[in-house]
Amino acid sequence: MLTEKEKRDTYIFLHFCLCKINIPNLELLVPMPVVSYVVLHTYLDQVRHHQDDVVIHAMCAELWVGGQPIALTQPQHTFGLPPRLVKDYARQLLEALYQQYGQGRRLGFERFAREEQHSVSQCPIRPCSFHAEHLHSHRWGGDS
Question: What SS3 state is found at 59?
Fold first, then answer.
């Protein structure tokens, strides 16, 4: 049985020999199983931690199969909704993706694999109360 020092010395020697004779290190690619998972994208004005009652400005869900994005639900504003309705809407996003892409298999559609939090300044919806571009064309009172 080799000691730890002997193992280390043997490894260093073999590595040196392989480099000297120009044999490239070979990487073995082990294929990953193809699984479906759903990512929840939220847009908020502060970082949200689990069970926080931070107002979620908008949300959408993204389906991935293996390493590829497959589908994205249309982002919707959720600010102004009570927390219970926001949670219900998130469940509806999962259910909609399952109905469209689940093929009768619930695996990957039971819950969100993770939540990706984005700044409210990145909200993709227009018109948007945060960006307020719709206000620039509005005339307020005064002479007409």
Answer: strand
**Nearest residue to 131 via CA among 122, 118, 142:** 122
For residue 112, what are its two tokens? Answer: 């969100």
Rounded Cα distance between 65 and 113, Å, is 12
The pTM of the full predicted model, rounded to 2 decimals, is 0.71
**pLDDT, tens digit, for every residue of 19-67?**
666 666 678 888 889 999 999 999 998 877 766 677 899 999 999 998 8
Cis peptide before 127 (omega within 30 of 0): yes
Phi/psi for 127 (5° steps) reads: -70, 155
Pairing between β-strand 36-44 and β-strand 76-77 as defined by DSSP bridges: unpaired
The Cα 90–Cα 60 span in angstroms is: 8
Among 103, 113, 11, 18, which residue's Cα sits nearest to residue 62? 113
Q: Which of 54, 51, 37 is nearest to 119 (CA)?
A: 54
Distance CA 62, CA 74 (A): 9
Cα distance between residue 23 and residue 12, in whole Å: 15
Angstrom distances, CA of residue 38 to CA of 25, 51, 66: 36, 19, 11
